[in-house]
Amino acid sequence: MSQQIARLEAEEGFPVLDRGPRGVSLTPAGRVLADVAERIEAELVEARQEIANLGEGISGTVRIGSFQSAIRAVVAPLLAPLAEEHPGLVLDVREHEPAEAVRMLRAGDLDAVLLERDVDVDAPAPRGQHDVPLLDEPWRLLVPHSLPTPERLDDLRDLPWIGALRGTASDRALRRLGRTLGTDLAMRHAYFDFDTALALVAAGQGVAMLPALAIERSTVPEGADVVAMTGLGSRRIVVRHRATRHEPGPAVRAVVDAMLDVTRDFDLA
């Protein structure tokens, strides 16, 4: 690698690396060459995929890591039509918490993972990976009949809340709402699965803020109302895959396209 870099610097007549006591970094010329190389690499990947699609068909195994509500709403509905369109394609669906799924994608144990995030605190994928947005869905309130039905954001200030596990999109959305209201929301309990939140609301333990998809694809418990309100923001679901010289391959691309087809038909207005 050192010889290749030295040869590149000799050919271009510019240093591409700044070498210092703490390591190396790209020079301005090095950054230009790196950006051009990434564009060339992306074009080569696209060319390989188009050539592969000219063959007898897409085949192989794609390992998908996802959380429960995304499996139910996005992954499960595509299994049958994808098998019919690409008989040689096998999907291996595994339920994992997002943090574990991200580690497995990085290690090569998964080919694609579905992730959730509060859209107001969105973050780009790390280098070598790519996020494809699938769905932006509004946050909804689930309010037990034992509490007054809120009509505006200020009415949420003093309500008791069902808390979410730290680091989840629901947790970040609740903390963002607290900052918007200028207060720390009174939260108790901690859920990861939305069915748990539904059960706690049904038990009169407080108000929960859930994504529209989780409510519409579940049975709303008796004694609770769903409230839509401006200013709650939305949750984004993305599918993340590796983005390297050889990835995503035709099989992963076919799965991502199928996910986009499924979510395109959702009506969460």
Walkthrough of the structure:
The chain is α/β, with parallel strands linked by helices. The chain has three domains: 2-51, Arc Repressor Mutant, subunit A, CATH 1.10.10.10; 56-134 and 236-264, 3-Layer(aba) Sandwich (D-Maltodextrin-Binding Protein, domain 2), CATH 3.40.190; 137-233, 3-Layer(aba) Sandwich (D-Maltodextrin-Binding Protein, domain 2). 39% of the residues lie in helices and 27% in strands. Strands 3, 4, 5, 6, 9, 10 and 11 form a seven-stranded mixed β-sheet that branches. Strands 1-2 form a two-stranded antiparallel ribbon. The mean pLDDT is 88.
How do the helices and strands line up, and which of them pair or pack?
Elements: H1 2-12, E1 17-20, E2 23-26, H2 28-52, E3 60-66, H3 68-85, E4 89-95, H4 98-107, E5 112-118, E6 129-144, E7 160-164, H5 169-181, E8 186-191, H6 194-202, E9 208-211, H7 212-216, E10 224-227, E11 234-242, H8 250-264
Parallel strand pairs: 3-4, 3-5, 7-8
Antiparallel strand pairs: 1-2, 5-11, 6-9, 6-10, 6-11
List keywords for this structure.
globular, D-Maltodextrin-Binding Protein, domain 2, 269 residues, 11 strands, Arc Repressor Mutant, subunit A, seven-stranded mixed β-sheet, 8 helices, alpha/beta, two-stranded antiparallel ribbon, 3 domains
